[in-house]
Amino acid sequence: MRHVTTTLILLGLIIMVAGCNILSYPLYVLFGEQQKTVKAEYSGLAGARTAIVVAVGPATEFEHPMVRSNLALASAYEIGREVKGATFVDQQAIERFQQEDLDWFYLPVLKIGQRFEAQRVLYLDIIEFTLEEENSVNLLRGRVTADVRVYDMADAKPDEPVYQTEVSVMFPTDNPVPMADMATRAILENQTVGEFAKALVKKFHDHKEPK
Fold it and tell me: How many independent structural domains does the chain possess?
């Protein structure tokens, strides 16, 4: 009750000092943006050793040869920061495996998990990865959509996902950027990968979001 009273007194003083125009200010400018806690949709990566496996189509891999590795590394980085005790299989080992065995995606997920002694397999099936703005030849905007699946190697049915969702991001969200040179594309690709990883990790830990 004392906190509410103090807040009302403070608001009254601000209005007296600043005049009536202050009433047009949104409240979050005065008191900060209100936030809510969003629970993790899946918390089983905590304390587990996870193999991150990224699948991309041939056309995407040809146009963006590093995107498979970059998506995996960025995802591991964000999850490692936010999910307590999460550890990961060396991504170079997974990348070598994918390059040497071109039929790897036909293998049961259990076999992949066992190969890398993983407790979980985080499988990112990339549905879309593009830097081109729609209906434009000289504007860029990154877009990624992935089918996200988590497999638990100790589950009774390890080849069936214990968690599945779709993650989609667009960057930048406001306006596309002009295509200046190849450096612009490289920077945008890295930023888009980073935004995807930040959206992905929210599925696996409790976090704050604006109300």
Answer: 2
